[in-house]
Write a structure and sequence with these properties.
CATH class of the largest domain in chain A: Alpha Beta
Largest interface: A-B, 106 and 106 residues
Largest sheet of chain A: 6 strands, mixed
CATH superfamily of the largest domain in chain A: Carbonic anhydrase
Helix content of chain A: 40-55%
Number of domains of chain A: 2
CATH topology of the largest domain in chain A: Beta-carbonic Anhydrase, Chain A
Oligomer: homotetramer
Distance between the termini of chain A: 48 Å
Strand order of the largest sheet of chain A: 2-1-3-4-5-6
Number of strands of chain A: 6
Shape of chain A: globular
């Protein structure tokens, strides 16, 4: 790969600093993790957004969470058509190989992907409708959620759609036979969260209230 | 979604601690990020593996890196067929919307996804060959890499294949027209890294040496 | 300007080396910074002293910190009298235009400016008392700090005064209406640090302890 | 100072990494610098802009450059009126106490301060004309430079004004008696540079050509 370039120097410096401190102080744990494999207790599905670090929010150590991050933290419906389904592969690996006890889907405020979906579905982003738009085709997953909030005024709809993204993903997770089976066997639980980036807020979906409720 | 369950208490406790300390101490920055959006300098593509925290290795603050994580940190080839291509959507968003300056692909030692690919391609994991195996179909992306290391003895092949995963992803990145264009316009650089989890090592691909070289 | 002279050759050589390496490796990021502007997360106010590189201590990349450097890292009190107040202009620009989330004031050991203030206030540097002494008139800003440590023995006073310089600057920052307003709105936080150059030490001011405390 | 807050955690981590690597590897030099004082060969006057690190461009070690950074890297005219003149104090300290051999003024492309001056002088930023605008009053220093480029078309004027900022500062430096005397005694030389951030370019003022010329 002749295009690969050297890493920026400041990142090399920071890595060297990490190696001399965090790694050095935790060497035994890193070696144990390498030798005995990972045994994460939970899978977290979140957005790629640079502003949300679930490892920070949940004080995570190396080895605790198996983390999949994609645009808006979406899970597509079960579709075993032989294609390269990256998200479905992560769910399959987490549930059937790692046997995590929890799958946590976490959405967030100010989500650019969800905003794009809102623009696309409300007719304000024709470029996202094109077949060649990967972001548009990915956000198609959220269309069922958009239908449920389309009647809301503009000001409320984006936030409501961010929360629908979590619910659509949870619904789609249940279409995977191995997920449904694990949930029904009570060896796996699903959780839906929404994080307010600016205010540091966290809400979880409460099926009884049929709403996201702050902690 | 009637299946959603309350978050385990220990995670609620950790979140509360984070809110009272890290969030409280950085409230101004979180609010700025929410109000003014993200301007990450780099996209990082890494594995979901719970043992690898690139934010820790690179001393990253919220806002610095747009992070996509999937099984083995793979990028599929460009394929605008209208399907739900989650990884392609993340690359498109990072390069065309966020205009990141760097895309860093980082593989790692002891990678379960790569091990599965090796087993599958060498005939030891027939279940991964089935059409319904999402992990198998995802790891198909790495088959061109397997071909290049298939001749190696078992003991060396897994590690070599982990590094091939980085190279295949870099090669596939260059099949995306908007990536190639940005690279050739010198507004984007690609970087390939491999991290030894147990030893805290970091190597980067050097096109001149045609090999991964430690820092 | 007929007095301008050619740059010393060793600096031209070093620049050429930087251009061929660091710039070349980071060209994409520099171009992004030029095209899309700076979005620094923090302002750092430090001394001009050649021995203190905060970009090194904090592993900073281009684009991260808006840095003002003057003698002793002092901030004068708010005084909108129409004069050329360089430091006040930097604070105004950082807080109201760039909307940084943090202002970090960092003092240091062995500070020549602070030593001059100590000499001046204790009667050992009459030349600094003259109206024409720019250094003396600048260090007048620190006189309230000197009053608080004047009773200390000579051996302890210089270091105590270095730390007072940080506190006086923080106090003066709060006299700027736009700083106070941003702090009270919790979109800006102030931080006071002191760096031991010889020992590589770093202490931060802890209001509860009313003292600088090492990390 | 009850407003001081703890330093963000990622900065503490990075500092710890620096302490364990860069400091540890250079401890002897840092201790020598602390014990024997600084002997910088040059003073550099540059902008606070986060995108310009002269220590990187000139491969500077701790101890080499006495660096003053303010908005646009300006030097006001000599004015010994007893006020707090921060920039004048830095020049006085560098030339009379440290006896630097060079004063290098370096401007840069995409300078927000210079852009503000252009807007203000061309009547597009009335708020900068108010007595209470510290940025406006600071940029008043550049008005003589604006007069010289006012006739240029908008597209060319901003860049020309960035270079005028360097020339005005050099002119003002020569109004300081101790600077003029040192220059005329040939124990000090002045240098004017302009840096193109996006392209990594560097030009120096050539009095013979009466223009900035690339290296």
């Amino acid at each position: 790969m002749q295009y690969a370039r050297p890493l920026p120097h400041y990142l090399v410096s920071r890595y060297s600093g990490w190696k001399a401190t965090t790694y050095q102080d935790n060497k035994a744990w890193y070696r144990r993790l390498a030798a005995h494999g990972q045994h994460p207790r939970a899978m977290i599905i979140s957005c790629c957004d640079s502003r949300q670090h679930v490892t920070s929010i949940f004080g995570a150590d190396e080895g605790e969470f198996f983390i999949h991050r994609n645009i808006a933290g979406l899970v597509p419906p079960y579709s075993p058509d032989g294609g390269n389904h990256g998200t479905s592969a992560t769910v399959e690996y987490a549930v059937t190989a790692l046997k995590v006890a929890h799958v946590i889907v976490i959405g967030h405020s100010n989500c650019g992907g969800v905003k794009g979906c809102d623009d696309m579905c409300s007719g304000h982003a024709p470029q996202l409708l094109e077949k060649t738009s990967f972001v548009g085709r990915w956000m198609d997953i959220l269309r069922p959620g958009y239908e449920r909030v389309a009647h809301l005024p503009d000001a409320d709809r984006a936030r409501a759609l961010e929360k629908e993204a979590v619910l659509v993903s949870l619904e789609n997770l249940m279409t995977f036979p191995f997920v449904r089976e694990a949930v029904e066997s009570e060896i796996l639980t699903l959780h839906g969260l929404w994080n307010d980036i600016g205010e540091g807020g966290l809400e979880q979906y409460d099926p009884a209230a049929k709403a996201f409720v702050p902690f």
